[in-house]
Design goal:
alpha/beta, UDP-n-acetylglucosamine1-carboxyvinyl-transferase, Chain, 33% helix, aromatic amino acid biosynthesis, four-stranded mixed sheet, transferase, Enolpyruvate_Tfrase_dom, 3-phosphoshikimate 1-carboxyvinyltransferase, 24 strands, 25% strand, binds phosphoenolpyruvate, cytoplasm, binds shikimate-3-phosphate
Length: 413
């Protein structure tokens, strides 16, 4: 049995940094994730004039309800979509000219519905190249607030950004949402806003965010459930047992629901008050599963699917095509390279038995600079000798120590 300590949640750390920066007072974040995405977010705040004190186990942020402390800044958001979508939104609440850019990978990813909504709210936001993509400049003069309509069918992060902004507006925000993916991430946002003193009223697809700002607090970051998924999948695939402390029935992250998928496939799963255990049984059934709510775990499932006794069909995951890479095609191409039988459609992927099955042949995985492709196929590697990666280091986005931790698990399974 292996007990695995998983680093902090990327999503929770990013929100906590926003909330801490926006709050009135000094906030202490316990056990934040230290990775490229979250370090990039913190650096962005520093560029915007916030004081962020960082020790390995705790980050401290001096909040500024009035917005950035500088009137001009140039912020580089790296590969992080939370950074690239949340920080320009935070900057809009301030007074100054703030330019944002991102890596080539992040520049390709969309944010038009968010920038449109900000403009509808009166924010002067200018794209430098393509509409709805970085680089962009926010000429901020505070946000009055009011009503806005948002299509979050491509990314829930647009909605999270606006919800987080709401309490910093003068009149509050009413957001009417026409479509929404990754809905559990919005629940994380609402729960965390509550911890910082703000209660959002929700009536179906309409969210009412009161003005009045946030209260500083001390906030402990829970382990990352998407990261934990690789370790749970490893147990299910090998017949081993993995326990992750700190993720239990009270967890905020919807991605912990990935263990229900593993349970349906035949693994034994125990979700306790403050820990989750997955035990592989030697059985791995095929299944059809819609992953709209937990699509960061789609590659994890795809990577163990060739070992299932029946077809694995993953549906309703169109927006995985606009992540760090086109994840549906990246999974399909890499699986085929290993000898698996795979088909994809606009929003689905199906992996069927009858390919090379347990005799998958090792090959170099093309990472497409996507941490999840690497971490997922590392799980495949537990039963397929000879898997290597063209860019193993891209795991730094969410888990710089992944290869060491996963190697240590391999020895204990
Ligand atoms: O809000 C968040 O922290 C996230 C929301 C999800 O994105 P989408 O809403 O774009 O699917 C998820 O894939 C991403 O890793 C983190
Ligand atoms: C999609 C992801 O990241 P983000 O959208 O936050 O860049 C991810 O971590 O899988």
């Amino acid at each position: 049995m292996a007990v695995v300590q998983i680093p902090g949640s990327k999503s929770v750390t990013a929100r906590a940094l926003f909330l801490a920066a926006a709050a009135d007072g000094v906030t202490t974040l316990l056990r934040p994730l230290r990775s490229d995405d979250t370090e990039g977010f913190a650096e962005g705040l520093v560029r915007l004039g916030y004081r962020v004190g960082r020790t390995p186990d705790a980050w401290q942020v001096d909040g500024r309800p009035q917005g950035p402390a500088v009137t001009e800044a140039d912020v580089y958001c790296r590969d992080g979509a939370t950074t690239a979508r949340f920080l320009p939104t935070l900057a809009a609440a301030g007074h100054g000219t703030y330019r944002f850019d991102a890596s080539p990978q992040m520049r390709r990813r969309p944010l038009l519905p968010l920038t449109r909504a900000l403009r509808d709210l009166g924010v002067d936001l200018r794209h430098e190249e393509a509409e709805g993509h970085h680089p962009l400049t926010v000429v901020a003069a505070g946000v009055e607030g009011g009503e806005v309509t948002l299509d979050a069918g491509q990314s829930s992060q647009y909605l999270t950004a606006l919800l987080l902004l709401g309490p910093l507006t003068r009149a509050g925000l009413r957001i009417a949402v026409t479509d929404l993916v990754s809905a559990p991430y919005v629940e994380i946002t609402l729960a965390m806003m509550r911890e910082f003193g703000v209660e959002v009223r929700r009536d179906g697809n309409v969210f009412d965010v009161p003005p009045g700002g946030y209260r500083a607090t001390t906030y402990a970051i829970e382990p990352d459930a998407s990261t934990a998924g690789y370790f749970f999948a490893a147990a299910a695939l090998t017949g081993g047992e993995v326990t992750v402390p700190g993720l239990g029935t009270g967890a905020l992250q919807g991605d912990l629901g990935f263990v229900d998928v593993l349970r349906r496939m035949g693994a034994e799963v125990t979700v306790g008050a403050d820990a989750t255990t997955v035990r592989g049984t030697g059985r791995l059934n095929g299944l059809t599963v819609a992953m709209r709510d937990i699509s960061d775990t789609m590659p994890t499932l795809a990577a163990i699917a060739p070992f299932a006794s029946g077809p694995v069909r993953i549906e309703d995951v169109a927006n995985t095509r606009v992540k760090e890479c086109d994840r549906l095609e990246a999974c399909a191409q890499n699986l085929r390279r290993l000898g698996a039988t795979v088909e994809t459609g606009p929003d689905w992927i199906e992996i069927r038995p009858g390919g090379a099955a347990d005799g998958l042949v090792g090959a170099e995985i093309t990472s497409y600079g996507d941490h999840r492709i690497v971490m997922s196929f590392a799980v495949t590697g537990l039963r397929t000798p000879g898997i290597s990666f063209d860019d193993p280091g891209c795991v730094r986005k969410t888990f710089p120590g992944f290869h060491e931790e996963f190697g240590a698990l391999r020895a204990r399974l």
